[in-house]
Amino acid sequence: MSLRFALPLLVAGLMLAAGAHATEAQHVRASGAWIRVLPGDLPAGAYVTLENTGDQAASLRGAHSPSYADAMLHQSSSAGGVSRMSMVNELAIPAHGKVELAPGGYHLMLMKAAAPVKIGDKVKLTLSFGDGSTLDADFVARPANATSAND
Amino acid sequence: MKLCRTHHWLLLLMLALGSLLLAGCHRGDDVQWQLNNITGHMPDLDFQLVDDHGKKVTAQDYRGKVVLLYFGYTHCPDVCPLTLAQLHVVMQRLGPLADGARILFVSVDPARDTPEVMHAYVNAFDPRAVGLSGPAREIEALSKRYRSAFTREPDRADGQYEVSHSSAIYLFDGNGKARLLSTPSNSQDQMVHDLHLLLSLGTRS
Fold first, then answer.
1. Residues in chain A whose beta carbon is closer than 8 A to a beta carbon of chain B?
2. Distance in Å, alpha carbon of A129 to nearest chain B alpha carbon
3. Which terminal residue of chain B, N or C, has fewer Cβ atoms less than 10 Å from its own Cβ?
């Protein structure tokens, strides 16, 4: 096969391969991202809606941020009249579906702010997914008594 | 003329019935509560704790106020702030009536929740919120009194820890009587509805 034919085929093949191997992060859209800022150095909850536009399921594994020393994926529950928190290893986002990290359920717990976070600040968090891909999103810092991204 | 007299009697009868109904409402026996009615099933409010100004306080200091009692801790990043934020919205919806109520946020983590930490914390939510802390045995006694419990979970690698605690909010009338229990399945509208009633009872008794 001459190079004249082989090159376009190679390029097409590479493009197909790239399409098939698009990362989870490339198919996930983040919206309504916010952080509930508490006084002092108390841990803060971070919330976001994640929509998966891809044909394959994606999974959120965790997050990190230059603004906080640590971030953990957690779930709150109130079964049997008792409020408790548990660690979550991964949160599945179904193909063409979405999950909400919202108060009283899934959330990211952010600990030890590098510098005091002020109300109105945009804090960059890097979300990481099951295949190792990452997605940056700006989280708006909201007051302690906020109940959603824009109340 | 005869017709007029009948009307007159009817009017009197209606007035009499009306005042009977009102009298019933005044006693508060037949109030249609929307939250869980615990009147007569839980003991009166009683505690000796320290408020967020570092002052020793007892339940007596809050007599005359409708009390919303909630157990939690400041290092709780999700459920406790959500509950307090929702209570703040409830207080705002009550308008000036809210001055007759106090949110008592009792720490189940007195080791980390000093009065200073509690002061900054509760005031970030609502000016009518009071942060109560104190000796662990006093907090345990108060928690047990309302058949709730809290458990310190194992330390994480960084030495921090979570505390599991009751998710309920206990409502007391101005005389310190336990009246209502709100759980996460109750709505904000139900809380506002019942607080309106409880606050109007409190001012009459």
1. 36, 38-40, 42-45, 70, 74, 76, 78, 81-85, 103-104, 107, 109-111, 143-147
2. 23
3. N
